[in-house]
Design goal:
By secondary structure, this protein is α/β, with parallel strands linked by helices. It contains 13 helices and 11 strands. Strand 8, helix 9 and strand 9 form a beta-alpha-beta unit. GO terms for molecular function: nitronate monooxygenase activity.
Length: about 350
Amino acid sequence: MALADLLGERPLVQAPMAGGASTPALATAVAAAGGTGFLAAGYRTAEAVADQVRAVREAGTSAFGVNVFVPSPAVAAPEDLRDLRAALVPESRRHGAALGEPLHDDDAWQAKIDLLCELAVPLVTFTFGCPDAALLDRLRRAGSATMVTVTTVEEARTAVDRGADGLCVQGLEAGGHRASYDPRTGVDRPLLDVLPDVVEAVDVPVVATGGLMTGGDVAAVLKAGAHAAQLGTAFLRCPESGAQPAHKAALADPGFTETAVTWSFTGRPARGLVNRFVREHPGEHYAYPELHHMTRPLRSAAAAAGDPGGMALWAGQGFRAAEERPAGEVVARLRAEAAEHGTRI
C-alpha cells in the first residue's frame, strides 16, 4: 500500500517509543482500533525486532511500521567522557549499580536493515538522520514505504531529495529524543510553527508529532496540512504499553509538574519529566551513544527499585492528559474529540 493511502485510511499513528514502551500489544491494539501501530527497533537486537514483527503479524495486524535509529557519526571526546563518568559516580553508588562502558556503536544498524528488507513491513521510519538514497530505494524495492523524522525544513528537503516517501515533522513539544540530524545545530520550533513550513516545502505526505494529546490537537495538525498525527505520550499509561510502572505512575503524580529537554541520560537532547537526575546533571554534552551506555545500568537499577528520581521519564509537554485505559479506548476518545472539531479520523 502506498504511504498516502495508508495514512489516508489510518491518520492516527502511534509513535514508536524505544526503550520498551512500544510493544506488539500496543501496536496491534492501536491498529485494531483503526490507527497505525508502531514498533521501535532502537536498543533492540535484530532478533528481538524479528520476534516483535512476527507477533504483530500473528495477531492479524497489517497496518504497522518499525522505526530505526540512524547511527551517529560523531564520537565523544575522551575528556568529556571522563568528566561525565566522574559526575555519575554518586548515582552509581545510590543503587549499587556499576556504570556501563562508554561504547560507540551503531545499534546493529546493518543487521536491522537487512532484516527489515527481508520482512517487508509496510512502513520503515528513521530517526536521528536520513539514510542515503540507495538504502531508501532498497527498502522500497523490498516492499516497504519509508519515512524520515525531521525538525527543520532543511532536514525535510534532504530526506525528500534522497527519496523518502514521507516525513514525520517533530515539534519541540515532543517527548523523548529530539530527532534532529545534528542536535548541536538543530533549531527547536513548536509543531504548529514548523509544520506549515515543511508542508509548503515538500510534495510528500507529512505526519505531525509533538505534544499531541487530544482529538482537538489531532484536528489542528490535520487542518494545518498534515496527512496524519502521531502520538506517543498519550499511550504511555495504557496497559498495552511496556513503560515501567514507576514511569506510568509518574505521569499522574502531582509531584511531577513539568518537562524539560535534558542531555544527561544519553548524550542527545530528549524531553522528559523533571526529576532528581535531571536537576543534578545539567549541561549539554554531545556523547551519544556513549553516555546512553554508561547510564543504562543506572536507569535499570532505578526502575527495579521503583525510584522515578533516577529514571529517564520521557514525556511530551501534555503528559498530564495521559490516561490509564486501554489503547483502543484512547483511540476512540481521540476520534470523538476530533469529530467535535469537525475532523474525521
